[in-house]
Specification:
Blueprint lengths: L1 H26 L3 H25 L6 H33 L3 H31 L6 H32 L2 H23 L21 H29 L3 H26 L5 H26 L13 H34 L6 H51 L7 H20 L5 H6 L11 E7 L4 E6 L5 E5 L2 E5 L2 H17 L5 E5 L5 H5 L8 E6 L3 H9 L13 E5 L2 H7 L4 E6 L15 H9 L1 E12 L5 H14 L4 E7 L2 E10 L5 E2 H8 L5 H8 L6 H5 L2 E4 L19 H8 L6 H9 L9 E2 L2 H11 L3
Parallel strand pairs: 5-6, 5-8, 6-7, 8-9, 12-14
Antiparallel strand pairs: 1-2, 2-3, 3-4, 9-11, 10-11, 10-13
Helix pairs in contact: 1-2, 1-3, 1-4, 1-5, 1-6, 2-4, 2-11, 3-4, 3-6, 4-11, 5-8, 5-10, 7-8, 7-9, 7-10, 7-11, 8-10, 9-10, 9-11, 9-12, 10-11, 11-12, 18-19
Length: about 775
C-alpha cells in the first residue's frame, strides 16, 4: 500500500507540472494567474479531503474506494488535455480586465482542476479508513503520507528532467494516467487479500479531544508557513542558481524530500509519544530556528559561496551542485514541516472514530493554510515587505503556532520557562534576518564574478520580479531583472534596443500603432516616440515596478515614453494580452528575457508567433530579440527555426561588440519584405524625422545604409543549417529545456560567424540607386 501511495504521488506531481504549464498558456503566468491556479489546485485537494468522509460510507472497502479514485484521476487527467483547447476559444472571447478577468481565470482553472484535485484530496482519507484511529494506526497514516511525498519527489524530477525535456506534455500526461490506472488495478487485486472489518453502520462523527482547536490552528499555520516559505525561497534561490525550469524542479524536489522524511520519521515517533501535542508545539518552535537558518543560507551563505559557474560546462554536474546547495538550505525546515502532520494526527486521535474523517480534517486545515500562504506571500507580503520581511513573518508565525499548542497544556513551571526561553530566542532570530543582497538580485549566480559592480540606485521586489538599477564606476546605468542584466546604457545595448524600434518603423510605410512586449529600460518603446507617424504605443509589462524605476533612471534614453500621451500601459503576461486582445498593430516588437528563464519559452513558441501574425495589420512588421550569449547552437537554431516556420520571409539583423556577434533581431512581414533604401534615406532627411535621425546617430547609425548594414541573412539562407532543429511548440516548450542546458555556453561570436558565412545577396529585398547600394554593401563589408 505504501508503494501504491508512492505511485499516486508520482502521478500527482506530473499532473501538477503539466497542468500549470498548460493553463498558463490560457490564463497567463502573472502572479495573479499563478495564485488563482495554486488556490484552485489546493482548494480541490482540501474539498476532497473533507467531502469523502461525509459522502462515502465506512462500509465500503477502502481499497475499492481508493482504486476508483485513482481511476477517476487518470481519466480526468487525460480529459484536461482536451478540455483546455476547447476552453481557450471561449476564454479568448470573454476575457477582460480587472476583477471580472480574475474571476474568469478562476472559473477556467476550476473547470479544469477541481474534478481531478477533489479526487486527489479524497485519496488519503479513503486509505486512512483502513487503519484504526490509534497511535499505531495513525503512524501508518503518516507513513502513507510520507510514501505519497516520496512518489511526488520522483514525479517532480521525472517530469522536470526527463518527460518534458525529451517528450511533451501529452506524453507526460499519458504516463501519469498509466500510473493511476496501474495503482487502481493493484488496489482492486489487493482488496481480496486485505481484510477489512467494516462497521455495521456509519457512526456519527466522534467528539474531538478537549482543546483540539489549537492543533487545527497550529497545523493550519504550519501549512501556511510551508507554502509561504516555498514561495519566498524559490524566488531567492532562483536568483542564486538561475531561474531555469531545472532549478524550480530541484527546489521543489528538495522541499518534498524534507516533507517525506519528516512525515515518515514523525509517524514512527508518534507511536511512542504520550503527549504528541507538546511534541508538535516543540516542533513549531524549532521551526523558528530552522527558518532563520534557511534565511541565513539563502541571503548570506550561498551568495558568498566561492564558486565560478562558468567553470562548470557540464550541466548535470551543475545540477548536482545546485541540488546540494538546496539541500543545505531548505532541508531542516522541510523536515520539521513534514514532522508536523503525523504529530497533529496523533494529537487528535481517539478509538472507534472514523480515521478517514480525522485525516481529512487535519489535511484540510493544513491545505487551507497552504493556500493562504502561497497566495498571501506571493501577491501581498513580498511586494509589501520584501523577502526579508516575509522571512521574518515566517519566524513569527511559527512561534505563534508553537505557543498556541502550549495553551492549557498542563506544563510544569520549568516547562513554561523553557517555552518563554524559546520565544525569546525566536525574537532574536527575527531580528537577524538579512535583506537579499542587491548583487544577487542584479547578477544572480554570476555575482561572484563582478569585480567592479558599481552601486545600486534602486532595489525593488515586486509580485512577479525583483528589480535593480545600478550605476557602474564609469557612469553606465544597468537595468537588472531577477538576476540578469536586461538593458543598459552601454553602446551595444543601446544599439540593440534602438534597432528593435527604428528598423521596423522605417521599413513600414506608415506605422500608426505599435505593441511593445516588455518594458525593460524603456529604450525600445521610447524609440517609437520620435517617429511622427506613430499614434499609439501599447506596452505590455508583467511587473508594475519596472516602468516606474526605468522612467526615473532611463528617462533621457527612452524619451520619457512612460509619460508620453500616446503610451498605453498593460500590466499582464504578454502572451495572455496577445491572446485576448482584439486590437491589431502595424508593428509588434518583442524583447523578452532569455528563453532559459522558466515561463519565457512561451514567447518563443510557434503558437505565440502565429498569434502575433494574426494581430498584424496588412503590411505589419514583427521584430523579435534573440540572444546569442548564454546560449548554444541547438538553442539558437530552435529559436530561428520556430520563427521562420511561421514567417518564411523572415530576416536576421546582427548586433555585435567590436565585430564579434552578441545578439540578433529577427524581422518579418507576412508579405515579402521590400526595402527601398533611397526612400528610407529621404524619409530620414525630412524635418519631421530629425528626432529619428538623431536617435539613430546616438548609436552610431548616421544613415539608412549604415543601419541596414546590420543585415545578417534571411530564412532561405539558413534552410540547410536549420534542418532538423526542434520547433518550439506550446505542448512541449522544448526551448526552455534546451536553453537551460546551454546556459553556460557563451560563444556568441562563433554562433554569429556560422550564420554570416551563409548570408547571400538579397536583391529582391533591397533596392536603390547605385550610390546608395554601394554605401549599403560597404556597410555589409562587401565590395
Amino acid at each position: 500500500m505504501l508503494l501504491l501511495f508512492a505511485g499516486s504521488g508520482c502521478a500527482a506531481l506530473i499532473y501538477e507540472v503539466v497542468w500549470f504549464q498548460l493553463l498558463q498558456l490560457v490564463i497567463g503566468s502573472s502572479a495573479v494567474s499563478l495564485g488563482v491556479l495554486l488556490g484552485t489546485y489546493m482548494g480541490g485537494m482540501c474539498l476532497g479531503s473533507l467531502l469523502l468522509p461525509r459522502f462515502i460510507s465506512r462500509r465500503e472497502h477502502p481499497l475499492r474506494v481508493y482504486g476508483l479514485l485513482e481511476l477517476g484521476i487518470g481519466l480526468f487527467g487525460v480529459a484536461v488535455l482536451f478540455i483546455i483547447p476547447m476552453l481557450n476559444g471561449i476564454y479568448m472571447s470573454a476575457a477582460g480586465d480587472g476583477l471580472p478577468s480574475i474571476l474568469l481565470r478562476g472559473v477556467v482553472a476550476a473547470i479544469c482542476l477541481l474534478p481531478p484535485t477533489v479526487l486527489m484530496g479524497a485519496s488519503l482519507p479513503a486509505i486512512g479508513r483502513f487503519v484504526e484511529s490509534t497511535p499505531t494506526g495513525v503512524s501508518w497514516l503518516g507513513l502513507f503520507y510520507g510514501g505519497n511525498i516520496a512518489g511526488a519527489v520522483f514525479g517532480c524530477l521525472f517530469a522536470g528532467f526527463y518527460l518534458l525535456r525529451v517528450h511533451d506534455m501529452a506524453v507526460a500526461t499519458y504516463v501519469a494516467a498509466a500510473i493511476n490506472i496501474g495503482v487502481a488495478v493493484m488496489s482492486y487485486l489487493l482488496r481480496s487479500k486485505a481484510e477489512y472489518d467494516p462497521p455495521k453502520e456509519d457512526a456519527p462523527p466522534a467528539a474531538r479531544p478537549e482543546h483540539a482547536w489549537p492543533v487545527y490552528v497550529a497545523i493550519g499555520l504550519s501549512g501556511l508557513c510551508a507554502l509561504g516559505a516555498e514561495v519566498v525561497w524559490t524566488r531567492l534561490l532562483a536568483l542564486m542558481l538561475g531561474a531555469t525550469t531545472y532549478t524550480f524542479s530541484i527546489i521543489l524536489a528538495v522541499f518534498l524530500i524534507g516533507l517525506g522524511i519528516g512525515s515518515s520519521g514523525g509517524s514512527m515517533w508518534a507511536r511512542k509519544l504520550k503527549r504528541p501535542r507538546l511534541a508538535l508545539g516543540a516542533s513549531q518552535l524549532a521551526l523558528a530556528l530552522a527558518v532563520a537558518w534557511t534565511a541565513y543560507a539563502v541571503t548570506d551563505l550561498i551568495p558568498s559561496w566561492p564558486f565560478n559557474p562558468l567553470s562548470v560546462t557540464d550541466p548535470w554536474r551543475l545540477f548536482r551542485i545546485d541540488f546540494g546547495m538546496c539541500l543545505l538550505a531548505i532541508l531542516p525546515p522541510a523536515l520539521l514541516w513534514g514532522l508536523s502532520f503525523p504529530l497533529a494526527l496523533a494529537s487528535l486521535t481517539g478509538r472507534d472514530e472514523d480515521s478517514g474523517a480525522l485525516v481529512g480534517e487535519v489535511y484540510a486545515a493544513n491545505t487551507v493554510g497552504a493556500i493562504l500562504g502561497a497566495v498571501g506571500f506571493s501577491i501581498v507580503l513580498i511586494p509589501w515587505v520584501g523577502t526579508q520581511g516575509s522571512q521574518q513573518a515566517l519566524i513569527a508565525l511559527s512561534m505563534i503556532a508553537g505557543l498556541v499548542l502550549f495553551y492549557k497544556s498542563g506544563l510544569s513551571g520549568s516547562g513554561y520557562f523553557g517555552v518563554a526561553a524559546a520565544a525569546l530566542v525566536g525574537l532574536i532570530l527575527f531580528a537577524t534576518v538579512s535583506e537579499a543582497p542587491w548583487l544577487a538580485i542584479a547578477y544572480g549566480r554570476r555575482m561572484s564574478l563582478q569585480t567592479a559592480p558599481g552601486t545600486p540606485l534602486y532595489v525593488g521586489e515586486g509580485r512577479n520580479s525583483s528589480v535593480v538599477v545600478s550605476q557602474l564606476p564609469g557612469g553606465q546605468i544597468y537595468f537588472h531583472v531577477s538576476g540578469k542584466v536586461e538593458a543598459s546604457t552601454e553602446p551595444y545595448d543601446m544599439r540593440l534596443q534602438r534597432m528593435l524600434g527604428h528598423i521596423p518603423a522605417l521599413i513600414h510605410k506608415d506605422p500608426k500603432s505599435v505593441l511593445v512586449v516588455g518594458f525593460g529600460a524603456g529604450v525600445t518603446a521610447g524609440t517609437f516616440v520620435v517617429h511622427p507617424e506613430v499614434e499609439n504605443i501599447t506596452i505590455c509589462e508583467i511587473e508594475p515596478l519596472i516602468p516606474q524605476a526605468s522612467s526615473k533612471y532611463f528617462g533621457r534614453e527612452n524619451h520619457n515614453v512612460f509619460h508620453d500621451p500616446r503610451t498605453h500601459m498593460v500590466y499582464d503576461d504578454a502572451r495572455h494580452f496577445v491572446l485576448t486582445t482584439n486590437d491589431k498593430f502595424d508593428i509588434i516588437t518583442s524583447d523578452p528575457i532569455h528563453p532559459w528563464v522558466k515561463g519565457t519559452a512561451t514567447l518563443y513558441s510557434k503558437e505565440y508567433f502565429e498569434l502575433v501574425k494574426q494581430h498584424l495589420n496588412p503590411g505589419g512588421v514583427i521584430t523579435q530579440w534573440v540572444p546569442l550569449y548564454e546560449s548554444d547552437f541547438e538553442t539558437v537554431k530552435s529559436e530561428l527555426a520556430t520563427f521562420f516556420d511561421v514567417f518564411p520571409n523572415g530576416t536576421i539583423w546582427g548586433n555585435d561588440i567590436n565585430g564579434e556577434g552578441y545578439d540578433i533581431v529577427l524581422l518579418a512581414q507576412v508579405e515579402p519584405t521590400k526595402i527601398d533604401i533611397d526612400k528610407m534615406q529621404q524619409r530620414l532627411t525630412r524635418d519631421d524625422h530629425k528626432g529619428v535621425a538623431q536617435s539613430m546617430a546616438e548609436v552610431n547609425f548616421h544613415s539608412a545604409p549604415q543601419m541596414l548594414g546590420t543585415y545578417a541573412g534571411r530564412a532561405s539562407d539558413l534552410q540547410e543549417w536549420l534542418k532538423g532543429s526542434f520547433i518550439n511548440r506550446d505542448l512541449n516548450l522544448r526551448l526552455q529545456y534546451l536553453a537551460g542546458m546551454g546556459l553556460n555556453y557563451d560563444k556568441p561570436g562563433y554562433i554569429y560567424s556560422e550564420m554570416l558565412t551563409r548570408r547571400k545577396p538579397a536583391p529582391e529585398i533591397f533596392s536603390g540607386s547605385d550610390e546608395v547600394m554601394r554605401a549599403f554593401f560597404a556597410s555589409l563589408g562587401q565590395p
